[in-house]
Amino acid sequence: MIIPSADRLQQVQEYYFSRKLAEVRALNAQGRNIINLGIGDPDMDPSEETVQALVNTSQTAGVHGYQPYNSIAPLRQAIARWYQQTYAVELDPEKEILPLMGSKEGIFHVSMAFLNPGDKVLVPNPGYPAYAATAKLVGAVPVAYTLKEENGWLPDPQELQELLAEGGVKLMWVNYPHMPTGAEATAEALQNLVQLALEHQFLLANDNPYSLVLPHGKPLSLLSLPQASECCLEFNSLSKSHNMAGWRVGMVLGRQDYLQNVLRVKSNLDSGMFQPVQHAAIKALSNPESWHQARNAVYAQRRQKVYELLELLGCSFQKNAVGMFVWARVPQTVTDVEAFLDEILYEAGVFLTPGKIFGTQGERYLRVSLCLPENKIEEATNRISTHLTSAKPELSL
C-alpha cells in the first residue's frame, strides 16, 4: 500500500541544493573529492566570544528547557541595538522584533500568516526559489517580476504597475542586496516600492542577510525609509554576516500587529530557540567592526581568485557586487549552461551553480561561492583549465 502525498507537493520540487548536494556526496563517496563552489555556506568560524558564550551558557543550570516563542528579552534588545548601530533604524524590542530559527523559516511563516489560496505574490526573477515555493505550498500564486542586468537588477516600475493593475497582489518579496546577483538597491528604488505597497495595499518584505558582506558603504534597511513601517517587514540573519549558518538565528522586523500574526504561526510550529544559542547570538551581535572587516578582507582576496576562474571560462561579470557570491554571464559559445556545468562537475570535479535555478532570467548565468579558501579556488581553476585543454572542441570553450 502506498499513501499518496498531499496535492500541494505537486506544486513544488525538492530544493535544488538538496538534490545536487546529494549528487556531490555520491561523487565524493566514489573518491572524486569534488570542490564545492556552489553553495553559500560560510567556512570561517563565528567570533571566539560567540562560541565561548554558547559553551558557558550550556554549562549553566536551568537553560535546557523550553524557551519563549518570541525569544528572551536580552536577544531582542541586542537586535534592536544592532539595527540602530548598523542601519540607523530604531525598533521597539518588545513590539517590533521577532527572532526566528533562521530567516528561511520566517519566509514560510509570513506566507502562512498573510496569504490565502489564490492570493498573488510578486517574486523576483532571478531570485531565491523559496519565495515562490512557499507561496505554492499555501495555495497562493507566485507572479514573477523581471530583473535585468541592464537595469542594475532592479524592478522595472512600469512592469510592476502592469502586474499590480491586474489586482490580487497581497505580498511582494524583494531581496537587497540581491541574491544571486549581488546588486544593491538605492534608497530611491526601495522608496518607490514602499509607495506602491501603500497605494495598492500589499505587504512588502525585504530579505536582507547579505548587507554586511563586502558592502560598499553603510548598509541599507528597508525599514529606514519613510512610511515603510506601515506596510513593510524586513528579514535578517546571522548566517552570512556572522558565520553562523548552522546555528539558525534569524529575525523578522516590523510593526507589532504584523509580527503577532507571524507569531501565531510560529508558536504552533516550534517551542523556542535553545537558550545558549540565544546568548551566543547576543554576543555575536556585539562583534566589533574590526571583526567584520577581517572577514570581508578574506572574502575580497577569494573574490580575486574567483575572477580568475571566471575569466578562464570566458564569463563576463560585475566587480562591484555585494555578498559572498560572484554572478557571471556565460559566453554564447556555451549553448546549454547547465549541461556545461555538469560537464565541469563530472569531468573536472568542480561544482558551480547554474543561474537557471533562480529563474528564467538566470539561464545564461552561473554563480560562484566565496566560501572556500584561496588554495581550493586555485585548485578548482587548475582542474577546469586542464579539462578545457583536453576536452573535445564541441564541449569546451
UniProtKB/TrEMBL annotation:
Keywords: Aminotransferase, Transferase. It is an enzyme of class 2 (transferase). CDD domains: AAT_like. Its cofactor is pyridoxal 5'-phosphate. GO terms for molecular function: pyridoxal phosphate binding; transaminase activity. InterPro entries: Aminotransferase_I/II_large (IPR004839), LL-DAP_aminotransferase (IPR050881), NHTrfase_class1_PyrdxlP-BS (IPR004838), PyrdxlP-dep_Trfase (IPR015424), PyrdxlP-dep_Trfase_major (IPR015421), PyrdxlP-dep_Trfase_small (IPR015422). Gene3D superfamilies: Aspartate Aminotransferase, domain 1, Type I PLP-dependent aspartate aminotransferase-like (Major domain). It holds the Pfam family Aminotran_1_2. It comes from the Bacteria. The keyword tRNA processing does not apply. Its EC number is 2.6.1.-. Residues 33-384 form the Aminotransferase class I/classII large domain. Belongs to the class-I pyridoxal-phosphate-dependent aminotransferase family. This is Aminotransferase.
